[in-house]
Every structure is written in structure tokens, then in C-alpha cells.
Amino acid sequence: MDFSFSEDQEAVSALAERIVGDFATHERLRALESDPDGGHVDRDLWVAMAEAGLVGIGLSEDVGGGGRGFAEVAVVTEAAGRHAAPVPVVETMAAAAPAVDVFGAPAARDRWLPGVVAGTTVVTTALAEPGGDPARPDVRAVAEEGGWVLEGATSCVPWGLVADAALVPARVDDGVEVFVVDLGAPGVARTRQDTTSGRPEAHLAFSGVRLGADDVLGRSGDRRTTGEEVVQWLLLRTKAALAVTEAGVVAAALALLAAYTSEREQFGKAIATFQAVGQRAADAYVDAEAVRLSAWQAVWRLDAGLPADDAVDVATYWAAEGGQRVVHAATHLHGGVGVDRDYPLHRFFLLTRHLELTLGGATEHLVRIGTRLAETPV
């Protein structure tokens, strides 16, 4: 399989790398992280990305987007991971905004998507559930004349402290629906939740939140997509985008490893020349390549409209398992420098752990792959 980028994708990659790299410097990230009351989102970077056409690159042209595919979105996502950039590329660009674009009523598309393209609106997803299945949510929606009333709560909502809207799965009488919820609406309460990576998330509580018919995804016009299908669509794209993010993260950690071991000397020689160091670095390189190739395999299948369940699970396994090995190797080979918070490596270590927990861990994906293999006739 050839994963080389097209000329246009190369241009998108170079543009994203330049903009994200200019903003997401170690000093700037440290300043954002030191704000105890902030949501740690880099609004200036987000606006700069929007002005360059990157935020809306995967959205339809009729809402101001670039009309490109999931692969172009993933290119931007990988660049954000490579710089640990605190912007909602996965949640807004890869999942929530495209879902509103594809499944949303015209009124919902007109309300939310132009702001996303302009960089003034953040839309996120609420897919974490205590039972692990967003298609079986704790939040409940009760139908009323002309709309719905939302009750309940959901936790671990990424960028939930700064988002303007969230896609929230909710139980209804005949299954589940996914709603676009204005987080500034009456009855919505947000509570900060701190995370492994240091990027705060939100607990959202809903009490008598009234929603209109246009706030339901998948019921626009003659088209009828079930809530379960919308949830699965969101999950596949979110997981693939997180895997690509991790591909960027491990690439950055590996680059730091290579630079440090090439410059650090012991006994008059660079430690990279020591056999044990070279073997550990080589193993990290193999893992980083596995993370990257499996992630792009999942992205390619989704972009091409092909079945991607197995590819996404393989990619998320490697992101969780291989990603951990890469950042641990990088930290160990740096010695004490690796745990110094004045050095950037710690940021990639913590982000890898955060992504692993978000994805659900390697074992979960192996079980899912094994179950499908066992159920497949020989």
C-alpha cells in the first residue's frame, strides 16, 4: 500500500507544519499550561489555522469549507500531534463538525459550521460513558411537542470548558439519538475535570435542556440515519484521528531521542553509538513506524468509504501499545533530562498516556479484533 501524499496533501502538510510549529513552541505551551483557570486551548493558533483554511478543510463548500476529505483533515491532525498543539483538531475537525455537516439539518449546519470555518466556534463530542459504549448513554432525552428535553450528565468531554456546542448521545424511547447541544443554553452546567496530559476536560450536567427537532443528527429531510449509526461514524473517525495524532506525537518523541543520544557523550563517544542505546532506539523506530502506518491505513479506508472497523482497531492498538513503548524509550534514554518539565519530552509522554486512556487501552482493541476473527467463517 502506497501512503505517499498527493501534491495537494503535501501542500496542506507543509502549511499545517509551518503554522502549528510557529505557534506551538515549548515556551508558548508552557505559558498556556501555567494558566490555572484556562482551558489550555490556543485560540490564536486556532484562528490562524482557520484563516489559512485548515480548520474547515474537510467541510462542505456551501458552509465555507474546503470540500476536501478525511485524509486532508488527518494531515493537519498529525501536525498538531507532532507539536502537542492544544487545539481541538480531533474533536472539531475530524468528528463533530463533519458530523453536523453530513447528518445535520440545514438550520444546524447554518448555525454552527460557518463559525467553525472562521475559527470562532468550537464543537466537541461527548462520547465517554461509564460502561464504555457511547451507543448506550446515561443521558436521557424525552420527546415533547416540537422537540426534546435533555436530562442527565456526561463526563470527560474534551475541550468541554471552551466548546460552544457538543454532540451528545442520549437514550430515547426507541434507542439512541445524537443531539447538537448549545453549551450556553439554560440548564447546562460545566465542571472542570483535570486529566493526565494536563489538558482539562469537562463534566456536563443537563437539567431540563430544551432542544428543537433541528438539533437531532440524522433526521434531516428524507434522510434517516439512526443514532447508533451516527455514534459509530463518530467513533471510527475519532479513533482514527487520535491514532494519527499519536503518530505525530511519537515522531516528535523519536526526533528528540535521536538528537539527544547523538549529542550526549559518555567516555568521549556519543551514547547513540552504544549497542544497548542503539537497539532501544531502533525498537522505538519500529514501533513509531507501526503506529504511523496502521494509523494511515485506517485513515485511507475511511477516506475511501471502505469498511474500516478492523483497520481502526489495529491502528488504535498500535497507538496505545506502541506509543507507550516509544515515549518510555525516549524518556529512559534521556536519563534525568527526560522527566524535566523544562524540557519538551514530558509533554509527549503525558499526551501519549492521555491518548491511550481516551482510546481505551490496547487490550480492549485486541479483544475486539479477536472476537471478529473468531466470528468470521473460515
Describe this structure in words.
- The chain has 378 residues and is of the alpha+beta class.
- The chain has three domains: 7-121, Butyryl-Coa Dehydrogenase, subunit A, domain 1 (Orthogonal Bundle); 125-224, Butyryl-CoA Dehydrogenase, subunit A, domain 2 (Beta Barrel), CATH 2.40.110.10; 228-375, Butyryl-CoA Dehydrogenase, subunit A, domain 3, CATH 1.20.140.10.
- The protein has helices spanning 7-23, 26-33, 43-51, 70-82, 89-103, 106-118, 227-263, 275-303, 309-334, 345-359, 362-375; strands at 123-125, 140-144, 147-158, 165-172, 175-182, 188-193, 201-212, 265-266, 269-270.
- Strands 2-3-7-6 form a four-stranded antiparallel sheet, with no helix packed on it.
- Helix 4 runs parallel beside helix 7 (227-263) and helix 7 packs antiparallel against helix 8 (275-303).
- The protein is globular, with a radius of gyration of 21 Å.
- The mean pLDDT is 93.
What's the layout of helices and strands?
Blueprint lengths: L6 H17 L2 H8 L9 H9 L18 H13 L6 H15 L2 H13 L4 E3 L14 E5 L2 E12 L6 E8 L2 E8 L5 E6 L7 E12 L14 H37 L1 E2 L2 E2 L4 H29 L5 H26 L10 H15 L2 H14 L3
Parallel strand pairs: 1-4
Antiparallel strand pairs: 2-3, 3-7, 4-5, 6-7, 8-9
Search tags:
15% strand; Butyryl-CoA Dehydrogenase, subunit A, domain 2; single chain; three-stranded mixed beta sheet; 11 helices; Butyryl-CoA Dehydrogenase, subunit A, domain 3; four-stranded antiparallel beta sheet; Butyryl-Coa Dehydrogenase, subunit A, domain 1; 9 strands; alpha+beta
